[in-house]
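look at this stuff:

>
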Amino acid sequence: MPRLVIDAHYLTDQLKALLTISSPTGYTDTIVRHVAKELERLGLTPELTRRGAISAVRQGSRRASARAIVSHLDTLGAQVKQLKDNGRLELVPIGMWSARFAEGARATLFTEAGTYRGTILPLKASGHTYNMEIDTMPVGWDYVEMRVDALSRNRAELDKLKIEIGDTVAIDPQPEFMENGFIVSRHLDNKAGVAVMLAAIEAMEREGVSTPVDIHWLFTIAEEVGVGAASILTPDVASMIAVDNGTSAPGQNSSEFGVTIGMSDQSGPFDYHLTKKLVRLCVDEDISYQKDIFKFYRSDSASAIEAGHDVRTALITFGVDASHGYERIHMHALRSLAELITAYATSPVEIERDRNQHAGIKGFTRQPAIEAEQELAEDSSPAE
């Protein structure tokens, strides 16, 4: 079928709305409610796990060998480690991110008494007090603290505010949507992936397209701490594609334009046949793409495999500059990803054997092992 038209305005509006909702790992109830309501508005029936991961099944021609598309709702953040005698808060990170990007960040502190605003500052923040020492301090979470915008000059006043160890800190995203298509913000990992999935669903519902198998639209809540899709898959899901960020940095092949297809991450190679199919769909649908390998990276796919799910996995990404920092992406990649998702969801099933969890060798896949043909030019022999 022709490539579906993705509503870029809808995608942008969804991303803007998602970025306004704080959702560090462990504090995701609000964003779960938001996404569940949007899925209902689009015509799907979301179901929630006990902790709030979302599954919404869009029915296809059959249930067996279903497909899953997954993104995560949670983001990086911090927690209160100690209440300090100077009235400030020692923090530990939620997820893996540098204290360099924490310095100067505005943030919201969630407590039993309500929310407080504050700023994460280096221990020596004032040049008028510390002179050149402000530039010679080490970098790390032991060298920053949160200044709360409330009467908090000492530990007793922090106690009076009912601030406690373990309280969650959400970092302001500070989003900026540029006229040239660039988007700069914290937490684009992975709210951009969620917006892409919603845009793909919107396009499929708008056009009323059918799919050969059920499509499970999954939204997880603890990917940033390594849990991800560990417990949300059902046995009828045969393949799962994670939508996440790719790191466009020196030494990487990811790009802020087009789709970046992950070939491998720190958990190992992704499924050969599913990845090949995604590449072929990009070629057939004229979707710009590139491939990359991520050495220090894991996704929802890794958590699913490690949890014991026998499911084919793949990773498709939007290139992000300064991932887990103050990130930048481009709308071209988001639109390309949504196009690929719809192309995959509507594509024919090729491995019929996958409808069974266990089967004989008949119909099992094959990977090429024949020697490649080579042509040597007459003048290509080594010089004497």
